[in-house]
Amino acid sequence: MASGGLQLLGFVMAFLGWIGIIISTAMPQWKMASYAGDNIVTAQALYEGLWMSCAMQSTGQIQCKVYDSLLKLEGNLQATRALMVASILLGLVGLFVAVTGMKCMKCMEDDQVKKMRMAVFGGVIFIISGLAALVATSWYGNRVARAFYDPFTPVNTRFEFGSALFIGWAASSLALLGGSFLCCSCPRRETSYPPTRGYPKNASSTGKDYV
Q1: What is the pTM of this model?
Q2: Range list of β-strands (E), the chain
Q3: What is the distance between the alpha carbons of residues 141 and 160, in angstroms, rounded to a whole number?
Q4: In the beta sheet, which residues pair with residue 54?
Q5: What is the CA radius of gyration of the chain?
Q6: What is the DSSP letter of 66?
Q7: Do 118 and 98 contact (CB within 8 A), yes or no?
Q8: Residue 16 vs residue 149, higher pLDDT
Q9: Rounded to whole angstroms, how far apart are CA atoms 168 and 195?
């Protein structure tokens, strides 16, 4: 019963992490214009994401522009896109696999060992999905930090971490923890002993005893 609760907790955490990864990928606030130092801009706030760049006016109006061409983008941005999309697709596969192996589901009830192995396999997929998202967000954040502290970067073009990065870090951590909890439901190998053979009973003599 305890393993079933741990399995359910792991599935919920992994599912919430997968949803968070989707939200992080779609958000345009991967980095935002910095207002540190002399870079004080009160008219608008600038954001950049994986798919578009946005500007929010002081009136609250937001204008976004989708990137024109995929070939004109930086290689680092294309790699980050690919990792996040791969993380989402892997999480989708892990979702279906883990649901098949959940104890509360009726499918594959005739073979509990295979059912638990499906849950473990789904947990492994969720771990890979979380690692892909963690690498993508950390790589992007490292580039933002290096550009911010680079003395050759103009002050008016410096960016800081956006909210999408923090959501991506939290979501990837949930996916990793949830996948690890699912892997904890791995069936233990029981030591099998050969069946004991009973000694044959002495056959009762049917013949007559002679004195």
Answers
A1: 0.80
A2: 31-33, 44-48, 52-57, 62-66, 159-161
A3: 9
A4: 47, 64
A5: 29
A6: E
A7: yes
A8: 16
A9: 54
Tokens linked to 159:
């960016």
> What number is the average pLDDT over the span 44-64?
84
Q: Cα(55)–Cα(61) distance, rounded to whole angstroms?
A: 8
Q: In what order do the strands lie in the sheet with 62-66?
A: 62-66, 52-57, 44-48, 31-33, 159-161
CA 151 distance to own-chain centroid: 36
CA distance 86 to 84: 5
Q: Which CATH number fits domain 4-27+75-184: 3.50.50.60, 3.90.190.20, 1.20.140.150, 1.10.10.10?
A: 1.20.140.150
Dump pLDDT digits (tens) for 155-198: 777 888 999 999 999 999 999 999 999 888 665 554 444 455 55
Place of tokens 């933002």: 144
Q: Which residue has the tokens 């399995």?
A: 7
At 113, which amino acid appears? V
Say how far apart CA 174 and CA 140 lie, in whole Å.
19
Quick check: 27 and 164 in contact, CB under 8 A?
yes
Site of tokens 């594959």: 108
Structure tokens given for 42:
């009160």
